Task: inverse folding
C-alpha cells in the first residue's frame, strides 16, 4: 500500500499540476463552488451505453431508410472458396503485382480476373462482413453526432467570455467553477469517445483501426487530465474547434457512398478549408 501511495503522490504531484500554493484540497467540489470532480469521470462510462443505443436508433430509423432509398448496396462480402495457394500468398503479401497475379493464375488454374476477385473478397472478409449500407449508416451517425455536438458546444459557449477572448481561460485559474451546461458538454463528449472505443471491435472494420483506437485513448486521456486540473475552459475551446470540421468530412463520406461525387468533393473542400483555418490558424494563435 505504501508503494501505491508513493506512485499516486508522484503522479498527482501538486507542484506539477497546480500553481504555487494551491493544493488538490483547495479544489474540492462543493455545492457553493462546483469545481470539476474526479468522480464525475466515471459517469461517461455507463453513459457510453446510452450513446450506443441512441446510435443504433439513429442508424435504424434515419439512415437505413435513406440509404435504401438511395439504393446503396446492402449486400455483404462474399465468402471465398478455400484455396491454400492463394491463402498462403495473401498472408505473405496483400499487394500483388501483375506478375504475381499471372503466376498465381497459372498455379491455381484460374483466370487473372478470378484471382483478383478472390483477393478483393478476402480483403473484405478481413475488414469484416459489412456492406456499403452498413458504412453509410455508421458514417451517418458520426455526421449527426459531430454536427449536433458542435451546435450544442457553440450554444454552451456563446455566453462564456473565453469564447470571444481566449485570455479569459486563465482568469482566476484554477478557481474556476464548472457550470451545468459545460459539465454536460464534457460528459457527452467523453461518453461518445468511450462508446467509439468500446464498439470499435465489432464495428465496420477499417484500415486505420489501430490508429483510431489510439486516437480515442489519447482523446479520452487528454480530456480527463484537463478535467482533473481544471483547464476545462481550454478543453471546451479545443473540442469546438475540432468538431467544427469533423462533420464536413463525414458529410463528404455520406455523399460518396450515395455516389454524389460533386457534393462529396464540395464537402471535402469545405472540410479542408475549415480544418486549415481552425487547426493551423485559430488553434495555435488564438
Result:
Amino acid at each position: 500500500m505504501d508503494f501505491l501511495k508513493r506512485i499516486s503522490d508522484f503522479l498527482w504531484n501538486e507542484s506539477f499540476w497546480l500553481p504555487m500554493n494551491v493544493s488538490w484540497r483547495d479544489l474540492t467540489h462543493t455545492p457553493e463552488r462546483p469545481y470539476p470532480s474526479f468522480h464525475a469521470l466515471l459517469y461517461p462510462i455507463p453513459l457510453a451505453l446510452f450513446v450506443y443505443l441512441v446510435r443504433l436508433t439513429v442508424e435504424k430509423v434515419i439512415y437505413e431508410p435513406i440509404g435504401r432509398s438511395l439504393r446503396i448496396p446492402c449486400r455483404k462480402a462474399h465468402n471465398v472458396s478455400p484455396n491454400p495457394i492463394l491463402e498462403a500468398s495473401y498472408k505473405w503479401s496483400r499487394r500483388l503485382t501483375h506478375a504475381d497475379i499471372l503466376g498465381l493464375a497459372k498455379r491455381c488454374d484460374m483466370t487473372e480476373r478470378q484471382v483478383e476477385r478472390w483477393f478483393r473478397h478476402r480483403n473484405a472478409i478481413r475488414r469484416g462482413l459489412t456492406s456499403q449500407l452498413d458504412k453509410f449508416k455508421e458514417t451517418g451517425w458520426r455526421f449527426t453526432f459531430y454536427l449536433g455536438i458542435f451546435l450544442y458546444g457553440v450554444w454552451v459557449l456563446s455566453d462564456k467570455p473565453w469564447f470571444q477572448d481566449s485570455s479569459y481561460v486563465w482568469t482566476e485559474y484554477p478557481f474556476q467553477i464548472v457550470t451545468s451546461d459545460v459539465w454536460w458538454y464534457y460528459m457527452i463528449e467523453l461518453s461518445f469517445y468511450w462508446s467509439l472505443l468500446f464498439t470499435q471491435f465489432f464495428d465496420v472494420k477499417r484500415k486505420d483501426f489501430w490508429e483510431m483506437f489510439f486516437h480515442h485513448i489519447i482523446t479520452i486521456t487528454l480530456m480527463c487530465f484537463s478535467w482533473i486540473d481544471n483547464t476545462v475552459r481550454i478543453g471546451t475551446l479545443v473540442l469546438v474547434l475540432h468538431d467544427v470540421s469533423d462533420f464536413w468530412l463525414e458529410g463528404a463520406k455520406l455523399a460518396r457512398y450515395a455516389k454524389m461525387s460533386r457534393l462529396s468533393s464540395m464537402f471535402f473542400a469545405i472540410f479542408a478549408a475549415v480544418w486549415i483555418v481552425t487547426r493551423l490558424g485559430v488553434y495555435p494563435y488564438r
